[in-house]
Amino acid sequence: MIRTEYPRPHFKRPKWTNLNGEWLFEYDDHDVGVTDKWYKEHSFSKTIHVPFAYQAALSGIHDTTFHDRVWYKRQFSLQKEQRSLYHLHFGAVDYEATIWVNGQLAGSHQGGHTPFKLDVTSLVHTGDNELVVLAVDSSTDLDQPRGKQYWKEKSESIFYTRTTGIWQTVWLETVHQRHLSHVSFTPDIDEKQIKLDYHIHGVASNLELEVSISFNGATIVNDRMTILNEQGQRQYSIVHPATQHEEWLWSPENPSLFDVTFKLHDGTKVVDEVESYFGMRKVSVSNGEVYLNNKPYYMKLVLDQGYFPDGVLTAPSEESFIQDIKLTKQLGFNGARKHQKVEDPLYYYWADRLGLLVWAEMANSYIYSERAVERLTKEWLDVIKRDYNHPCIVAWVPINESWGVPDLLTSAKQRHHSVAMYHLTKSIDQTRLVMSNDGWEHTQSDLCTIHDYEASKEILKERYRTHDGALSFLPSGKNLYALGYQYLGEPVLVTEFGGISFKQSDWDGWGYSHATTEEEFLKGYAAVIEALYESPLVKGFCYTQLTDVEQEINGLVTYEREPKAAIEKIRAITIGKE
């Protein structure tokens, strides 16, 4: 199976080459590859199907034992053009990558969840070229951001199979020497304006950037500006006869998008053309309520860990993302919390198109150290930059359940780190909600989020009947707020709960509570959902979880995405009385 779809649909160019498919592959367990110059000459003994990690069945290898250094090699052909640059893109390589092209070092990257590109123009030539990648991923390094990837060979408890090496699309892009390198869109629905920030590579005289914005096929902006600097900013009104009614506001119920075309003119010639889009939406909090587009909005989220039976962290196809989003909505949810995974951009693209709120969460490390802080911070900045333009993303979660900051109660350094991650995120993006530490031990957060796996409806109803009851609860024995911090009236959401196990597959597993029949499963689901709906203070929830994942069998559907009860019955409970 080859992933052939365009990997970056929010910033799309016509000239690109997909480098997924069969590559040569080798373990380097004795760390001899660099010394022996495998990037120049080596007889590789295996093949692998990129972008699937060697641990995944779809890779063709399916080996879950430890191999921390792995090599890849493949050939590719091109017809080199004058005045063109060749950018080699990697969607994600876990964790450190070093790349050679035609035996020459092209560059390196650290960070297992974010994209990077290398300008290989000087290294490629017309005809056949050779690409070699070394990926290094320490299986047991606990201050490396790793999410749910376990540091033991066999999965157990809440931890799953690791992903080593290339796990998202590899591709080659052809661009002009002068091109649009980056754009960001910031919506302002109150002023009915969209702010555009742009970056140009190769500024020279006679450059002009043309911006065309349309809605439902009607052009509402057509602007052409002279480029004087590498970066600039424009603000456009979206007021137009085509946007007279509120149908232009993006929401899960109405996922309206504006289409954008950029053309970079060098004199009379168009040297770069990019297709993009944006959504006009606002998420905010006020007086203990969550608002979407200035109206109170109850967030009905489901925890989605983004694992696949044969692909591990890599979806088998683009259609897999579409199916998961449609399934989430069919089950009655209006959003998903992507848990401990920086998801493939294609998921966010389809959440934008189909209408699904997303909480985007960083994959955390498990211990605190200066190196862990540096790694997390650097990669988190790359996450925000990559995904800033997706209207579906309404919340950022840099830290979950004190992972990577296990001593928040006693360590001032770790509390400062939690606060710093909140403010660092806000310094870049003030259009979204930010959680300093989802679940408990909050420092400064926009919401009071609580993880609570109580199964009794009566206990939950009493606990969330008053603020005093909710704020005195100790999830997993932890305080809701870290030392020196307190509740300041933020909206209260229960962002992990439920977790009812119901075995529907061939393997045994676990959950936070248990059901043996469909009737018992639906009764337990209704109990926890109804308890939160009946609370006068809870403003949203996130149910654990969408799918079973390996040994964790508390999904509403199986690992293969088969519902454990009739979808319409689950949906009726999820939606509640509206």
Structure in a nutshell:
By secondary structure, this protein is an alpha+beta fold. The chain is built from eight helices and 34 strands.
Structural summary, described in words:
With 578 residues, this protein is of the alpha+beta class. Helix content is 16%, strand content 33%. The longest helix has 18 residues, at 370-387. The radius of gyration is 24 Å and the shape is globular.
**Strand-residue fraction?**
25-35%
Label the structural class.
alpha+beta
Can you give the helix content as a percent range?
10-25%
Uncertain stretches? none
Radius of gyration: 24 Å
Biggest beta sheet summary:
8 strands, parallel
Task: Tell me how many strands there are.
Answer: 34
**Annotation field: number of helices:** 8
Distance between the termini: 43 Å
Shape: globular
Q: What's the mean pLDDT score? A: 96
Quaternary structure type: single chain
How are the strands of the largest sheet arranged? 29-28-27-26-25-34-31-30
List the keywords:
16% helix, 578 residues, 34 strands, single chain, six-stranded antiparallel beta sheet, alpha+beta
Topology (SSEs and partners):
Elements (H helix, E strand, L loop, with lengths): L15 E3 L2 E7 L18 E5 L18 E10 L5 E7 L2 E2 L1 E6 L2 E7 L5 E4 L7 E10 L28 E2 L3 E7 L2 E10 L4 E9 L5 E9 L2 E9 L4 E7 L12 E2 L2 E2 L2 E9 L2 E10 L4 E4 L2 E4 L2 E2 L2 E6 L13 H13 L4 E4 L6 H10 L2 E5 L8 H18 L5 E5 L14 H17 L4 E2 L13 E4 L5 H7 L3 H5 L20 E7 L1 E2 L11 E2 L3 H16 L4 E7 L22 H9 L3
Parallel strand pairs: 25-26, 25-34, 26-27, 27-28, 28-29, 30-31, 31-34, 32-33
Antiparallel strand pairs: 1-12, 2-3, 2-4, 4-10, 5-9, 5-12, 6-11, 7-8, 7-10, 13-14, 14-17, 15-16, 15-20, 18-19, 20-21, 22-23, 23-24
